[in-house]
């Protein structure tokens, strides 16, 4: 009897061992890190040992969480995108692919840093790799070298080149690809365009970017390596920052998990000045923010003045994230160079959010 109890207790103890998780979050856009960070934090809170390479070191120590800080070598990207740059790149699928290549390709330059070189000798030190699937797949090679499973995370909707890795249906006759903003009820010509851009994205990634990635990694590792398509085919699971009620409903295999809303943490107290402004907003308040990447200060002057003119006629208070002084702002417009957006939106007096269409901001607005 007692022997059975002892064996059962030992089984429970052995079953509670945490995994040794290696997080490679080298893509230095803050909007992407906002989605990655809570995943690593929760894994550490649940007893796993988490080591994270990123440009966003924690300000407060967290048990089981180790930072490898790259902020001095891979500068965090915040408030650096202009409205004009987005107009030139984002709506254009042909330009967007090269935008991915330039921005995400830069992150692969850290492969030559000593900390990343030391990872190649870290056999039996980690159990799993978690990294971002966006543009370049250079960090997937660490899972290959360390002979451990890999989980991929995309901080937006699923990327076109992810489908073949996970058996993810992407029939362009009814499933919109990443580059399109059509309604799901596409007409014939929209379906044709959706098909062409999907094939273009896959071709570009497989035959251009993947070859460049392989060459870059081989140079850094000093050895010949399998092609990217072979390495990423062993990815065990795929987390995507989407939710079917917001984006198009589509079939997902069991290894593809929607995690939309993971970044919405417990509310923190607002700064006193903002708390007082919202509490006293008798007619409600509106938040206008273009997220952590886009500089609202790059809005063309006529458009900015149009917003100010409209806001001046509203009875609501408007809290506007604007990175410069704005003397033209009417009395009911409060200017702040940075906003705790998630905490603001939850306030009961917020009645609307004006934003740039970012997925995380949209999820927050819908959630609250």
Automatic annotation (TrEMBL):
InterPro entries: UDP-glycosyltransferase (IPR050271), UDP_glucos_trans (IPR002213). It comes from the Eukaryota. It holds the Pfam family UDPGT. Keywords: Glycosyltransferase, Transferase. SUPFAM superfamilies: UDP-Glycosyltransferase/glycogen phosphorylase (SSF53756). Coiled coil: none annotated. One of its GO terms (molecular function) is UDP-glycosyltransferase activity. Belongs to the UDP-glycosyltransferase family. This is Glucuronosyltransferase. It comes from Cuerna arida.
